Amino acid sequence: MIIVSENLPFTLFMKQSLYNTRIKLSEHTDIIYNAATEQFVIVPYTFDFDNLNLSSELAAKLTREGMFVDDRIDESKESWDQYLKSVRDDSLFRLIINPTLNCNFRCWYCYETHRKDSTMSAEVLQKTKDFIKQIISKYKKIELSFFGGEPILEFETIVLPLIRYTDALSKKFGKEYVITFTTNGFLISDKMIESLKPYNIGICQITLDGGPESHNNTRVSRHQDSFIKISDNIKLLAKAQIPVLIRVNVTNENIEEASVVPSYFSDLPAEVTHYLRVFVQQVWQDAHNEILDKRLKLYEKFIQVGIYPWKRRFNYTKDICYGDSLHSCVINYDGKIFKCTAMDFENVQNEATIFDNPLQEFQDSFLSYISKKIQNLRCKDCRILPLVAEAVLNTLVRPITEATVCMRVRKIKTS
Questions:
Q1: CB–CB of 268/238 below 8 Å?
Q2: What residues contact residue 412 under an 8 Å CB cut-off, 6+ apart?
Q3: Residue 73: Cβ within 10 Å count
Q4: Longest C-alpha distance within the chain, in Å?
C-alpha cells in the first residue's frame, strides 16, 4: 500500500496500477508503461516503487500518468465497464458487404476460399437493401464497407447500386454515411473513380506485397506489371481526393526489397500525399520473425516522401475492433451474416442470415457471447487487458523510441 500526502487535509491511499509494465530501455534507464492510460514514464534502472520519495516530482508524474491509482479503484471493473460501453455504442453501424468471394489474384497468404461462382444474387441484393433501410432508419450514421474476395469485380452490379441506394436513403432520412473499400486496387479505373466522386468515400485500403519483384510474384498478372498498375491506381485515387490507406504486407524475406516502395510516390505533391497514409503489416504466417526495426525504417522512408503512418489506436476497452461492436456485421454474398472478416467464409458457422430477422438475431447471439467473454478470469487481472493484440504501432507521429517501446509491450506474456 502506498500513501501519498501532497499537503492535503487528508491522507490519500494509492497503489500501483494493475496495468503497469516495466521495460528495460538502456543500461541506465527503464520505462514504466501503463496499458490503460497508454502513457510512458522513463525512470532510472534503480527505481523502486516501494522506496519512492512520495513528495518527489517523479511520484507526481507517475500519479498523473496513471501508474499510481486510488486504492479504492477496481481497475479491472472499470476496464470491463468501459469495454461494455464501447460494445454498446450505437453512434455508428458498420455494415461490411462481400459482393463476391471471387478474386483476380491468388495471394499465398490469403485465408479465404475463393469461388468463381460466388456473386451476390438479385434476391440477396434486395434483402441487403432492406437491411440497409432498417439500419438507416434506426442509427445516426452508417459505414458501408466493401470486402471480399475482390469487391471491385462486382462494382457495376453490386457495389455501385448499394452505394447509390445508401446515398438516396441517407438524404431522405437526414442521416450520415461513409463508404470504405478493402481492395487489391488492380481493377480501379478512371471511370470508376468518376462514378465515386459524388459520394462520401471515406478510405480505400489497398495492399502492396513488399517490393515490386515480390509483389509481382504474389499478384501475378499475365498482361501487366501489377505493382506498377496498383501503385498508379493509388495515385489516381489520391489525385481525385479519395483517401487511400496503403497497406504494405511484409515478411522477413521481402522487407528489404520493400524499402524502394516509397520512391514510387516521391513525385507526388503535398496536396496529393495528404490523401495517403501507410500501414506496414507483417504477414501473419511470418509473425515468428522479428522485423520491427526494419518496419520502423520503412515508415521513415515513407515519411520522407510525405506519406505518414496511419494513426491507429489499440485500446481494447475504448477503441474496440469493429467485430466487438454490437452494431456491426458482415453480409456475405450468399446472405449469411458474420461478425468478422478475418475468416474463411466457406468453412465457418454464420451468426444469422439476411432472410430472417437479421438485426435482432445476430445481436442476441453476440450479446450471449459477450456475457461469457467478460467472465474470463484469465483476462480479469491481465496487465495488458486494455490493449488489442498488436499494441501499439499507433503511429510514428510519436518519437520513434516510443513506438519501439510500444511494440515491445506486445511481446510480454501475460500470467
A1: yes
A2: 21, 23, 384
A3: 13
A4: 79
Q: What's the CA gap between 266 and 164, in Å, rounded? A: 35
Q: HSE on the CB side for 7, CA within 13 Å?
A: 3
- In order, the DSSP letters of 62-101 are HHHTTSEEETT--HHHHHHHHHHHHHH--S-EEEEE-SBS
Task: Indicate the helix (H) or strand (E) that contains 352.
Answer: strand 352-353
CB atoms inside a 10 Å sphere around CB 190: 10
For 69-123, the pLDDT digits (tens) are: 988 899 888 888 888 888 888 999 999 999 999 999 999 888 888 888 899 999 9
Residue 243 · residue 277 · CB < 8 Å? yes
Sign of torsion over alpha carbons 331, 336, 339, 344: negative
pLDDT in tens, 197-235: 999 999 999 999 999 999 999 999 988 999 999 999 999
| Cβ atoms of 116 and 151 closer than 8 Å | no
Grid cell 490507406 — which residue? 245
- 266 residue type, one letter: S
Instruction: For residue 82, give the amino acid letter.
Output: Q
